[in-house]
User: Fold these one by one.
Assistant:
Number 1:
Amino acid sequence: MHWIQITIETDKDQSGLIDSYLCEQGALSVTFADAGDQPMFEPEPGTTPLWEAVRVIGMFDAQAPIDKILGNLEVANNGKLPPHRIEILEDKDWVREWMDSYQPVKLGQRLWICPSWHKPPEPGAVNLMLDPGLAFGTGTHPTTNLCLQWLETADLDNLTVTDYGCGSGILGIASKLLGSRHVTAIDIDPQALLATRQNAEKNGIPPEHILVEFPENHDGKKTDLVIANILAGPLIELASLLSSLVKTGGNIILSGILSPQTEKIVSAYNPWFDFKAAKELDGWVLLEGRRRAEGNRR
C-alpha cells in the first residue's frame, strides 16, 4: 500500500486553519514540524507553543483526489496556494526500519548500550541490553549520553542509587551493571515502570536489586546517588524533594537542562549542594553536586 504526503509551508497563525482543512479533506494524520530551525525551549505548563515558521504535513490514502484537495485549499486561502510539496510514500516495515536505525552505542571505555536484537560488539565489556518500548531513553540523546558517560567513569561500587524519572530504566540499570548495590527507579508513567522492569530482567538484574515504583509509593529513603534526567521545570519544582533523597556527602546528577537554564537549576539546589563545573553536549548540560551536611545549608 502507498500513501500521499502533502507538506505545506506556513506560519503559526495559519497552521491551525490548515490543520483543520486537511482533516476535513480526509487526512489520515496531520503533524506539525519546525520549518525554520527555531529552538523551542521548555514551555510553561498548560501551553503548546509553535514555531514561527511551521511545516504542516498531511498523510492521505493513495486514492485521495490530491488535485481537488489542493484546489479547495487555494480557494479557502483567498485564491493563493501556499508553498507545498507532494510525495509518494511506499509501504515499509516501519518496525524493522526503526530497529535497523538503532545500533549499539559505546560510552567511554567499557560501557555499551545494545538494542536487545543486536549481538554485543564486545562481549567482555559492560553491555546493557535495552528495549526502550514506549519509554524515553535509548542512550542517543545528549542528556542521556552525558549521564551514561558520568556513570561510566564514576566509582559506583556498593552504592545505592535513585533514578528519578527512570524512563526505560537505562540509567539505573547502567549504574547496577557498573557496580552499584541497589537501585530505586521512580517514574510517573506506567509504561516507564514496565519498560524498566523488562529491561532489568533482560540484563539479569534480580527484582530484589531494583525497586521500581511510582513517586507516591516511595518511602523517601536516602541513597548515595540520585540521578534525575528530566527537564528544567520539574527539576526546579522537585528541588527540595530530590535533595532530601541524597545522603550527606552523596552526589546528585541533574540533566535534561538546556545551557541557558543552568543558573536557575544551580540556584534551586544551592541550599543543599556544592556543584562542579557543568558538562555540556550539543547545548544540553549535566550538573554534578555533592550534598552538604544538614547544618551547612546555605
Number 2:
Amino acid sequence: MNKLIYIVAGFALLTACNQGDKKKLLPIYGNRQPVTKTVDGKSVVDTIYATIPDFEFVNQYGKTISQKDVAGKIYVADFFFTTCPSICPIMQRNMLAVYNEFKADAGVKILSHTIDPKHDTIPVLKAYADKLGIAGDSWWLLHGKKEEIYQLAEKHYLVAVNDKGAGGYVHQGWFVLLDKQRRIRGAYDGTDKKAVDQLIADMHILQEEYK
C-alpha cells in the first residue's frame, strides 16, 4: 500500500483537532525533525518539516521553471504522460476544475510533470495543453530528465511511478497540495471528483492560513 496513505491516515487526528480552532489549519505531512534552538537565552524545541527540494524543469512554453517560480505560492503537483490510456484523461479533466477555480489567482500554480519525457517533448506538451484549453501562466506541464522526475515523485512527493505499466508507464493519480514553504499539506485522488472538490476547498483553507 502506498506510504502516502499511511501518512495521511496518521495525521487524520490533527485535522480533527483543528476543527475547533478559530481558523482551521491543514496538517503538515511528511518527515519531521525536532531541532533545539536558543531563543532569548532559553533552549526551545522547534520542528523542521520535510520540503520539496530545489528543481528545474521546462514548461510547455519552453520556459525554465524552478523553485523560485513557486516561492511564496500555493501549488498542486501531479504526474502524468500525454499518451496515458487509463487514468490521465480523468485526472486532467478533474485538474481543469482546479485550474478554472484559481487561474486568475497569481498566488496559485499547478505543476504537472510528464513521466515520459522522451515522447512528451515541449511541442507535444504545448499541443496537449492547447487541447485541454490551458492558457496563461497558472498551469505548467513540465519536462525534465526522467531520473530526476522519478526521484522527485517517489522520494519527495511520495507518488509511485515507473515505466513498466499499461501504455509503457504506470503512476499513481495523486494531486499533492503544497504550501508556500513547499511542504505537503494534502494528497487527493485525482480520479475522484469528490476528492478534487475537497482539494479545492482545502486550497481555500490554506490561503486563509496566510492571511
